[in-house]
Amino acid sequence: MTEMVAGLPGGSGPFAVRDLERMPDDGRRYELLDGVLIVSPIPGTRHQKMVVGLAAVLNRSCPDDLHALIGPFAVRPGPDTELQPDALVARAEDLTEELLPVAPLLTVEVLSPSTALIDINTKKAAYQRMGVPSYWIIDPVDARLTVFELDDAGVYAQVAEVKGEDGVEVERPFPVRVVPAELLGTLWRRV
């Protein structure tokens, strides 16, 4: 189950990025959003298969001046926020060896039972505020991809949704075709 913790034990204030260094190395994902700690459990098989499949698809089409990366990889736009999307695309010039200090061009979250509400609501709103041009949500249970892009007002609008063996051609951050069932490989046929 994903937990959201508003401040440090003892009430000494909200969390800061420096506090993440003190988190245990226990396989959980520790993220920070506006000083609130988000702790997520280790993802499952279908989740990880989707992430690996998506990384392969993105890497095949990714131009040389961009990089497609899988999480955990820190997106740290400020001292009280560090998110680790399941996948992201960023400009090569924006990346450091340790993290991405600015908004990526694309963030992708693959839903888990324990993270779905945070991914669909909280993180989507955070990525919108950061100005991430494209946000994808993938549901590994029914192999569904939902694509959101910032409109002229800076608000996410759903521009595509495909399921199973249906594919979608997207242009942002670069032209690529994604078929959700193919991301699962042989797990697509397993229920």
UniProtKB/TrEMBL annotation:
Residues 19-175 form the Putative restriction endonuclease domain. It holds the Pfam family Uma2. The keyword Ribonucleoprotein does not apply. Transmembrane segments: none annotated. Keywords: Endonuclease, Hydrolase, Nuclease. It comes from the Bacteria. One of its GO terms (molecular function) is endonuclease activity. PANTHER family: SLL0198 PROTEIN-RELATED (PTHR34107), SLL1222 PROTEIN (PTHR34107:SF4). This is Uma2 family endonuclease. It comes from Actinocrispum wychmicini.
